[in-house]
Design goal:
This protein is 70% helix and 3% strand. With 191 residues, it is mainly alpha-helical. The N and C termini lie far apart (49 Å). The model has no long low-confidence stretch (mean pLDDT 80). It comes from Thermococcus thioreducens.
Length: 191
């Protein structure tokens, strides 16, 4: 099975190559009769630059995600995390699984990202610190939604505009779940 990062790295290399080629051609297209072609190649070079940087960002995000999973995803001293679709996250005793086999980090990330959680199990009697944190995170999410909305209206590149709209939608999901958690937590802590 081809890993996502392999495709991202290949795309990054191709975008770098395309950008170099477009720049090389732009240097040659000096005559006025090439004005239209020059404008087209300029647009393609700009697109390639944006795409290359997006692939670089995806590459960094992928590697950061892998480090997160390796550091916090399953190496807890109390056991390993078992992600079972539709059920709350479960910490299982070490060695859970076929012959104690470890799940590759990429598959763990894929499982985390498969469905956005809508139900989260909270401890019955939590301290006020979790509620405070949820409130702070909710404020951060609201600010991010507002800023991503502003950016989506101001973004001049169509790929960036659509990407930002999707990021905004994702932040709205974060905001909704944090709001729901905050309400749920304040009820369980006050009970």
């Amino acid at each position: 099975m081809e890993r996502m990062i392999t495709t991202v790295e290949e795309l990054k290399r191709l975008e770098e190559k395309a950008e170099r080629e477009y720049r090389r051609l732009l240097k040659k297209l000096k005559d006025p009769e090439y004005a239209d072609l020059r404008a087209l190649i300029m647009r393609m070079a700009i697109d390639a630059a944006f795409h290359r940087h997006l692939m670089e960002a995806l590459e960094r995000a992928y590697h950061d995600s892998m480090r997160l999973v390796e550091e916090y995803g399953s190496g807890e001293s109390t056991g390993e995390v078992a992600l079972i679709p539709g059920l709350p996250t479960v910490v299982m005793p070490l060695g859970f699984g076929a012959m104690g086999a470890r799940v590759p980090p990429e598959e763990i990330i894929e499982e985390y990202l498969k469905d956005f959680p809508t139900e989260v199990v909270l401890p019955e009697n939590g301290d006020g610190k979790v509620g405070e944190l949820l409130g702070r995170y909710l404020e951060l999410e609201r600010e991010m939604v507002e800023l991503y909305d502003r950016l989506s209206r101001r973004a001049f590149h169509p790929v960036v505009r659509e990407l930002v709209k999707e990021i905004k939608r994702n932040e709205e999901q974060h905001e909704a779940i944090l709001k729901k958690l905050g309400e749920k937590y304040s009820h369980s802590a006050g009970a």
